[in-house]
Amino acid sequence: MQRTGQAELVAAADEDPQLLAQYSEKFPGKTYQSYEELLANEALDAVYIFASNQLSEDLTVAASEKGLHCLVEKPMAATLAGATRMKAAADKTGVRLMINWPFAWWPQLRHGIAMAQAGELGQLWQVKYRAAHQGPVELGCSPQFCEWLYDAELNGAGALMDYCCYGAVLADVLLGRPNRVDGIKINTGLKPDLELEDNAILVLSYDHALATTEASWTQIDKLTSYSTTLYGSAGTLLIAPDHGGTIQLANAEHADGIQLEIPEQPAHLENASTHFLAAINDPHLTIHPLCDAEHGYGSQWILEEGIRSAQT
Predict the structure, then answer these.
(1) CA distances from 195 to 52, 159, 189, 286, 299 (A)
(2) Beta carbons of 22 and 142 less than 8 angstroms apart
(3) In this structure, are 90 and 160 located in the same domain?
(4) CATH number of the domain that 69 lies in?
(5) Tens-place pLDDT, residues 169-186
(6) Does the pLDDT at position 242 exceed 90?
(7) Model-level pTM greater than 0.85?
(8) Which of 60, 182, 219, 250 has the most beta carbons within 10 angstroms of its beta carbon?
(9) Structural domain span for residue 23
(10) CB of 266 closer than 8 Å to CB of 285
């Protein structure tokens, strides 16, 4: 955000003194151990909310009620009820509510979505996404982060909420709300300190399509992680992950696949901050579908149905 030169960072709040100290070492502005005090004492235009999924619900409502635009880290909320409250508060006050999905800033994924929506793959009949790594602790996440990720109430679930959410929002953007969600979750026992599921799969059923979204906190390396596959009646897209990733198309003319050129992207889609600030400055700018609160809400509905299915 600071690198954009379009906004001033004025304050941060967290209940953890260690995190506040780390913040102060790197960034300007006052620090607070009370979210309420920050909102009461500082003149703000917008907020970044990177709390637990449960706390993000309350903070988004509080900020929206003060007329502040909100950028919230995925998956939007811990529960569907929380997402409902967030969306209602933003709609009532007219603020921008944007959900930050890290894969939204991959040009190749955005291009694949645009191709599918333009009908270049024919009838889209399957959306597949897998998110996986060895686990939050093994990945090097902070103790403060892992503490709430491993708490079903604060996170909403375990790996299912943390990583099935990506495929859920992708499916909601491309296929809409499914007729049915079947969820499976397991605890492999590979993490003795973890009581929640460390692996999960959701299967989304539509009238003439399906989607699968997979999550793992036990996968060694990233050989199959974060890749996206879109299957249509006229072509198949394989989208490689991360910045610099590729997009390949197989169709009647290219049975073995061909690598596609990614069109030049608008500057405001470079990252979450450039897009959020552009959306604030231009109320007519359409937030990218992946980050739009409507699809964030749709993904939360899918996740809630998946959790219900897995539990029963």
Answers:
(1) 18, 11, 9, 41, 24
(2) no
(3) no
(4) 3.40.50.720
(5) 999 999 999 999 999 999
(6) no
(7) yes
(8) 60
(9) 2-101
(10) no
